Every structure is written in C-alpha cells, then in structure tokens.
Amino acid sequence: MGLTKTERRLRIRRRIRKISSGTAERPRLAVFRSNTGIYAQIIDDEAGKTLVAASSRDKELSKVKGTKTEVANLVGKAIAEKAKEAGIEAVAFDRGGNLYHGRVKSLAEGAREAGLKF
C-alpha cells in the first residue's frame, strides 16, 4: 500500500527541514495550512524563537470576506509588514510539506509584494 496524503506531506516536511533552518540573519518563514485557515510564522531556529506571526484568524483578517486564496494573500502581506517593523528583510521560505500551489503560493506572492525577499 502507498502512503496516505498526510504521511506523504509529513515525509516531505521532514526532508525540507533537514536542509532548511532559520538563522538570526535569515529567519525561516514557516507556513501551516489547515482546511479553514492559513498561518505564517517567522522563526529563528538557532534561538528557538518565533519572531513574528500572522494568520487568517487575526482580528483584522478574520473579518475580511473573500476566497481562501485571497485571504492567504492578505496574510502574506500582513506577515511582511510585521517583519519589516521587526527589521527582517530576507527569509527562507518553508512551505511545510505543502505543494507550492494555491493558498501557499498566494501567501508567498503577498509577502513578496509587500517587500519580503526570499
């Protein structure tokens, strides 16, 4: 029997995390996608700290009406704005085992539009 969808995603996630880690100079932008929401964190793995976080459940973004893809784009813009306030300009993108497609791609494009480099 083959792998389930979840097992496959977790296997890909472990493979990505082996080579990708966040530093103080270039933290990691980690994306988690659930059925109902999307969450993004900028993490310094060396210190083990979350520097900035944004999600579709934040007060400002939870009131927005639109498709999940449109909301993901807004989350990307929000995380980029918060990162700029914290003095972060470049990150390493961690898609969390999800395909770079749909909501994950939309979040990344929103972050890039707002000035985050990766």
TrEMBL record:
InterPro entries the record matches: Ribosomal_L18 (IPR057268), Ribosomal_uL18_bac-type (IPR004389), Ribosomal_uL18_bac/plant/anim (IPR005484)
Keyword Membrane found: no
Gene Ontology CC annotations of this record: cytosolic large ribosomal subunit
UniProt GO MF annotations: 5S rRNA binding; structural constituent of ribosome
Organism lineage string: Bacteria, Pseudomonadati, Bacteroidota, Flavobacteriia, Flavobacteriales
Protein's name according to its UniProt entry: Large ribosomal subunit protein uL18
Pfam families noted in UniProt: Ribosomal_L18p (PF00861)
Stated role: This is one of the proteins that bind and probably mediate the attachment of the 5S RNA into the large ribosomal subunit, where it forms part of the central protuberance.
GO biological process: translation
Top-level taxon: Bacteria
Species of origin: Arenibacter aquaticus
Keyword Signal appears in the UniProt entry: no
Family affiliation: Belongs to the universal ribosomal protein uL18 family.
